[in-house]
Write a structure and sequence with these properties.
By secondary structure, the protein is of the alpha+beta class. The chain is 43% helix and 22% strand. A hairpin with a 5-residue loop joins strand 1 and strand 2. The N and C termini lie far apart (37 Å).
Length: 248
């Protein structure tokens, strides 16, 4: 267990301002609906649905919204969503993985390609970037969940691969196929997680300077603004000094 690794898994996310909350809830709703459609509509018997609901609740999504998303799948009133992964490169050769959940593959592909082109990036072929990352399960707990030692002991007992803690959170990583079982085991020990999901962890990081980082931020922000885009992952390594300058 590499519990003290200083790995920086940079996934650029915007602050959850009120203006972005409805868009965030829309993405959660699609994820819940898809999970309910692909499995049983009962979260107790559908681990993916259970995790999708937990993530929505962690961002204070109202129960009525969650119930509507499930009923949409039960009633057959649901578009045919596809999960698609796009890969590309940003400034300084940084690799990006863009996860999309869409009811229109052609629209999503065109939008993502355009956003790359307009913001200093280039779309790549399938597999051109993914080999630089490991696909893992990631379970996040708040600091109040316990001490670093307690979290490490719980992670080992639950069968996780790795755990690390800082002042903001405890992050536990698992093999992709073990995420649901590890999440359940951790919940029995530590209570509900703050969030649970699949992440793309870079095998190595690509250092970039201020100019490249500024362009990369514009690219990732533009991608995350797209309604079909669920997540954006990058292997950029940006120093604290550069991040402070960008933040102003």
């Amino acid at each position: 267990m590499a519990g003290h690794s200083k790995f920086k898994n940079i996934q650029f996310r915007k602050d959850r301002q009120d203006g972005l909350r409805s868009k965030l809830f829309s993405k959660f709703s699609r994820d819940i609906t898809l999970a309910a459609k692909q499995g049983l509509p009962d979260p107790a018997a559908n681990s993916r649905l259970r995790l999708a609901i937990a993530n929505a609740k962690a961002e204070s999504m109202p129960k009525d919204n969650i119930d509507r998303a499930i009923k949409k799948a039960i009633g057959g009133e649901v578009d045919t969503y596809e999960e698609i992964r796009y890969e590309g490169f940003g400034p300084g050769g940084v690799g990006l993985i863009v996860e999309v959940l869409t009811d229109n593959r052609n629209r999503a592909a065109a939008n993502v390609r355009t956003l790359f082109g307009k913001n200093g990036g280039n779309m790549g072929e399938s597999g051109s970037v993914a080999f630089m990352f490991d696909r893992l399960g990631e379970i996040v707990y708040p600091p109040a969940a316990g001490s670093e030692d307690k979290i490490m002991d719980a992670a080992i007992e639950a069968g996780a691969q790795d755990a690390e803690s800082d002042a903001e959170s405890h992050v536990i990583r698992t093999a992709f196929e073990d995420m649901a079982s590890v999440a359940d085991a951790l919940e029995a020990i530590l209570g509900p997680a703050k969030s649970t999901g699949i992440v793309w962890k870079p095998k190595t990081l690509t250092p970039i300077g201020e100019a490249e980082a500024t362009t990369l931020m514009k690219l990732t922000d533009a991608l995350e603004d797209d309604d079909d885009v669920q997540n954006v992952w990058t292997n950029a390594d940006i120093s604290d000094e550069v991040m402070a300058k960008i933040a102003g």
